Amino acid sequence: MKKFLVFIKKxxxxxxxxxKTLLILFGMPVxxxxxxxxxxxxxxxxxxxVIMDQANDAASKEIITKIGASRYFDxxxxxxxxxxxxxxxxxxxxxxxxxxxxxxxxxxxxxNAAQIQVIADASDPNNATTLTSYVGSIIQDYQAQLSxxxxxxxxxxxxxxxxxxPQLKGAPNFVPGVMALVLMLVCVMMTAVSIVKEKETGTxxxxxxxxxxxxxxxxxxxxxxxxxxxxNVASILLLSVFVLDLPVNGNILLLFAxxxxxxxxxxxxxxxxSVKTNSQQVAMLISLMGMLLPTILFSGFMFPIENMPxxxxxxxxxxxxxxxxxxxxxxxxxxxxxxxxxxETLILSGITVALLIISLKSFKxxxx
Amino acid sequence: MEAAVIVKDxxxxxxxxxxxxxxxxxxxxxxxxxxxxPDGAGKTSIFRVLTTLLLPDGGxxxxxxxxxxxxxxxxRSRVGYMPGKFSLYQDLSVEENxxxxxxxxxxxxxxxxxxxKDIYVQLESFKTRRAGKLSGGMKQKLAxxxxxxxxxxxxxxxxxxxxxxxxxxKEFWEMLKQLKAQNITIVVSxxxxxxANLCDRxxxxxxxxxxxxxxxxxxxxxxxxxxxxxxADNMHALLKILNGYDEVLASYAFGEFAHASFxxxxxxxxxxxxxxxxxxxxxxxxxKTGATIEDxxxxxxxx
Lengths: 368, 303
Known about the structure:
The structure holds 2 protein chains of 2 kinds. Chain A has helices spanning 2-17, 19-39, 58-69, 82-91, 104-111, 125-149, 171-201, 203-208, 214-242, 252-276, 280-298, 310-316, 320-333, 338-362, and strands at residues 47-53, 73-75, 96-100, 117-120. By secondary structure, chain A is mainly alpha-helical. Chain A has 2 domains: 11-40 and 169-362, no CATH class; 47-149, abc type-2 transporter like domain (abc type-2 transporter like fold). Chain A has a 4-stranded mixed β-sheet, covered by helices on one side. In chain A, helix 2 packs parallel to helix 9 (214-242), helix 3 (58-69) packs across helix 6 (125-149) and helix 7 (171-201) runs parallel beside helix 10 (252-276). Chain A is elongated, with a radius of gyration of 28 Å. Chain B folds into 2 domains: 5-220, P-loop containing nucleotide triphosphate hydrolases (Rossmann fold, 3-Layer(aba) Sandwich); 227-302, Alpha-Beta Plaits (2-Layer Sandwich). In chain B, 34% of the residues lie in helices and 27% in strands. Chain B has helices at 43-50, 72-78, 94-104, 113-123, 136-148, 166-181, 216-221, 235-244, 269-278, 293-302, and strands at 5-14, 17-27, 32-36, 58-63, 66-67, 80-82, 154-158, 185-190, 201-206, 209-214, 227-231, 248-254, 257-262, 285-289. Chain B has a 6-stranded mixed β-sheet with strand order 6-7-8-3-9-10, with helices on both faces. A 4-stranded antiparallel β-sheet of chain B has the order 2-1-4-5, with helices on one face. Chain B has a 4-stranded antiparallel β-sheet with strand order 12-13-11-14, covered by helices on one side. In chain B, helix 3 (94-104) runs parallel beside helix 5 and helix 4 (113-123) runs antiparallel to helix 5. Chain B is elongated.
């Protein structure tokens, strides 16, 4: 037991004394969350639009105020000629123009119908669709408000409800993904490299000529990374709650327990790689190409698995990150309990145990 | 008393090359045994088989009576091993390294402090310094401490003095002598012939084959020819001329001299001198000299 503690202390020293490792360990999750949260979001925020109000009456003003209050839009200028508008589109200064014709309120009140022209820059079709639908819903909202006081009896209003993500926020989708990605990266790469490093620097040679047991080395390598990764999970969750406004809907203890399981899975993947390789570079390459890429491609985080060809769908089943991604989404966003995710948990445990056994069996007790 | 290490017909093959070629020797308990040979002679391979790091391809070996293949775990807990490359944790301090290895072998620094005391006092002032920041000589001392901390019965030192300054080398051998006094068997390898004399017995090795196993004194005594040390202003020309001289049995550069032996045991020195003078050599110096381990090694290589 004392041996084990000394081993773990030594591993902690390796990690904590290497500034570069520390930076990767703790800097990466924060940077990734912030990048995914703010830079790489597919939400449309603060899009600059122009509003031309030729009506300048009560109705148009109210709609403009509503648009202006939305944080998706950034109203640039309210008076512009058609020529100016076109130039602004061409320069990319604005994304959308909303034009109220003269007598807008009049038409609305007397003919029960009025027109608004919405022009969007569709060079980015996704962006344009999103923007126009935002405006559309604002206008509809206004209509609904009007119809409360009007005498027109029946009005069919489509009710759109976005499950789990009513505002179509990007965060619910990427926080579980980033968690899977960061843990995969940190745990797999760090453990893989740390064991191979012992082989490369020759310390493994001395360790072998001692009464140590392979399992002792493996576990003591894993423990520091397990603890440090849990700190990472906590920091990602804190960032997502306080910076990205994404609350944890389910049981936070369950989330941590499942994260611990996934971290252990990743650590065994790392140990497996390190047992099979002999240089830090190779270990690093395999963890990056062999683990990171499949994690991004097959976890369902970037690309929906249902859209993939069937063989690839099968393949995605052996990617631990896929199961963890499902688990985190279920707990964090849908707020589900353990009975919803026991199957995924079982699969992850299975992968872990299998990898651990293979790694222990193939741990070389001799050189070469 | 049983020998500490017994090597019998040991063979180790890497693909096409035979690194160790049917080697047999034994090391007595409590002696300093040297494996002397140039780089690539197979020293490290023998060490790795003896420390159970490699499986032999042929033959057998025992350490402390334990078979290197079957009883590897017993051997691993009794021997001390210091690889040729500095292999401690560079990011741990001197004290942390020592403490780690002590615990690894289920012991404490305190328990075996007497063994390493003489060496460790020199390191004591650098206790908190990271191992990676030590000088070459200091690193060797620390590595020796770490290999000794569990009171090994046999100590394997693979080229411990390579890359270490002459003063530290001398100190290092002093330490080995003290360890020998503690009844620890030491198997050491070195490419430096001058260190051979410091061993109790040596094995000369080249190309995976043992050339001779004996005490350094006996190996030198067994040298059959009378050696002469010859010096001239132009050493390059001298060596060339000696090589072409048909009276010469063997000649080669040896430090600032050339060593030569002659076919005729009672060679006429004056005759040799006048022969060399005729060849336009100046500053000639010619004297009898005793053989060294290196001369024996060269002789054995030629045979």
